[in-house]
Amino acid sequence: MELWLVCALLTVVCYGVGEGLSKEPTVRLGSARMLALYALGNAPVYVAWFLLGSGWTRLTPTGIELALASGLCGSLGTIFWFRAMESGTASVVSGVTAAYPVITVVAAVAVLGAALLPLQVVALALLLFAVVLLGRHETDPEGTESRDVGRAWLVPMFFAVVLWGVWGIVERLSIDALGFAGNAGIYVLVSTPVYLAVAARGVARGGSWDRVGVREALPSLILFGIAGITIFLAIGLGPIAIVVPLTTAYPVVAILVRRFWMDERLSGPQKFAIGLALLGVVLVTV
């Protein structure tokens, strides 16, 4: 098995389990505190990567610009994702997230000249249809009814999908220009202040550093940190038009975690939509 594929599959597992476990601590602590923990936990890892890998030796103006764009898109996308997780149903948010490779794959074709097979076009159509269907209904907290939405989680989830989609292609260009270590250094330089600035505003609005919430958040934060490394490696080593769609298979893992860990139910239309999204992820990697 090629290294990029191993990294991509590790990303799926780590993001999936991490997201499946992150709903309760995000609600308990609020997205602001979760962002602060996420930023402070990941910063030392990326700084060490930059220093140990002599990342400064490959810094160029063009590469730095690409890494800055990657850092902004990635960090802002994550901020919007936390907002969506705080106000939406975790399983639904996970399913909608599967749409962002549409943007990355299209950009890979336009910018990098990647070939898009007919089967991949079908897969992208399935992903788009699934997003529309998921946006029509949301399950109540008990999972017994569905209601029309378009409410709190939809807007941040839309921006998360767009920003992450753009991030996928810019991240590959940045890694090509700076190498893994150089990209990691610029990425953390941009993303950490963004995370902490947004987190500080949210923390100032109230709430507390609930010890139980912090303890519950640790497994998710550790898994997200591991996934942050493996996805960089997968994007840099593998074909971008395949890697990014493949890594969106993590909702499968997240949904399984939610099923076994916390009985979060879905309505019939939601199950169908998530199934379409996951089928699209599978087809786009064939």
Describe the structure.
This protein is mainly α and 286 residues long. The chain has one domain (3-284). It is 80% helix and 2% strand. It contains eleven helices and two strands, in the order ααααααββααααα. It has helices spanning 3-29, 31-52, 61-87, 90-97, 101-112, 118-134, 154-204, 211-237, 240-247, 250-262, 268-284; strands at 137-139, 146-148. It has a two-stranded antiparallel ribbon. It is globular. The model is unreliable at 138-150 (pLDDT under 50).
Estimate the helix proportion, in percent: over 70%
Based on DSSP secondary structure assignment, what is the total number of beta strands? 2
How large a portion of the residues is in β-strands, by DSSP E? under 5%
Backbone shape: globular
Helical segment count: 11
- Classify the secondary structure makeup into a structural class: mainly alpha
How far is it from the N-terminal to the C-terminal residue, by CA? 16 Å
Uncertain stretches: 138-150
Order of helices and strands: HHHHHHEEHHHHH
- Specify the oligomeric state: single chain
**Major pleated sheet:** 2 strands, antiparallel
Strand order of the largest sheet: 1-2
Mean pLDDT: 80
Radius of gyration over alpha carbons? 18 Å
